[in-house]
Amino acid sequence: MNNDYLPRIADKKMNIALQSAGAVLVVGPKWCGKTETAKQFAKSTLFMQHPDFTENYLKMASLKPSELLEGETPRLIDEWQDAPILWNAVRFTVDQRKKRGQFILTGSVVPKMGKNMHSGAGRISRLTMRTMSLFESNESTGEISLADLFGGKTGMIGTAKQTLDEIAYILLRGGWPETVKEKTAEVAMKTVFDYVETLISDDMSRVDGKKRNPVRVRSLLRSIARHISSPVKNSTILGDLIANDETFSDKTVADYINALKKLYVIDDLPVWRVAMRSKTAVRTTSKRHLTDPSIAGVLLGANKEKLFNDFNTFGLLFESMVVRDLRVYADSLNGSVFYYRDKLGNEVDAIVELSDGQWGAIEVKMGTGEEEKKAASTLLKFKERVNTEKMGMPSFLAIITATQVAYQRDDGIWVIPLGCLKN
Fold this sequence. Notes:
With 423 residues, the chain is α/β, with parallel strands linked by helices. The protein has two domains: 10-128, Rossmann fold (3-Layer(aba) Sandwich), CATH 3.40.50; 144-422, no CATH class. It has helices at 10-20, 34-39, 54-63, 85-97, 146-151, 164-173, 177-181, 185-206, 214-226, 234-242, 250-262, 293-299, 304-309, 311-332, 370-385, 388-391; strands at 23-27, 44-47, 75-78, 103-107, 124-128, 144-145, 158-159, 335-341, 347-354, 359-364, 396-401, 405-408, 414-417, 421-422. The strands form three sheets. It has a seven-stranded mixed beta sheet, with helices on both faces. α12 (293-299) packs antiparallel against α14. It is globular and about 65 Å long. The mean pLDDT is 94.
């Protein structure tokens, strides 16, 4: 690996995937580091969007796609979706060679899978990347491990390095590899702003060739940002939009949201399907999240001063950053992240569930004191309501904070600063 590369948690999964499948498909938002990670493992590369060769590559793909697959393996094919025929070509070549670790495919867009495109099952392994967690950006001490929490380890303590002021900056700067490396706050913030502007004015119309109004895209994204970390239906977002533009329709909202999902920009948090002791109905609406909290920060015109003057918004954006990090950490353990909310208003901010059924419940709070007491009460009551005969006992209960000290309470609940957590 080159000296400028910041190691990613996904590196281990990439190594395993290359040993277990003929090809690896790396997906995630534009600019999250997919290509750089893939380059660390590739022995040869094909950049479909290289300005000097794109036209030739596309012609070759239409005439003889196998030619583009020739090269030392693993061969990286970056932005493969520009020539979707390469998907079947990779699948066929993997079948013919009968070897693992032949190709790495990267892309920032979900392509339209034609009726003749093979699923890739058994040949192509899928790896999802997100923006960098605090542990990956060297801003978490990693003294508290999610794996250790599931393993029942006790006696862990830790001290985060960040003040609340620094947490605000990290949130607004985002986990983009380029802004993480940037030493100047002003430049980092401008970089995120430019990313959002490109998304609105260019990417949303290029994703599937359908022209979309940038003014409408911005309005919709701002509505999502205002509802970040909240379970809000499309109808509520539509209500926000028609207040200023009566021509908005539910179809338009659905189309724009679908395009944002294809770009891996929207990353909503689903509800945990849990067996409860009571008959209380569980809500089904996902919580709204963007792939990185910095996107919401730009759309809301936030800066550190505004966040400190609006702690409610600060808290919601912080929760979104916690969910992003939990997803990165859980994925490395073959786990997923959900949340819980029922019709009575009972809610738990995050549930991490592993593939073997182990689970842990997490509340997110900016501080401790009364917030900690309330969060602990919520977690203990939730534990009592879960049908543990079907779901099993929780491996842990935890409160993730923006404070600095990590410890375990007398009731067994962990208090963990985000700046102490790792996978």
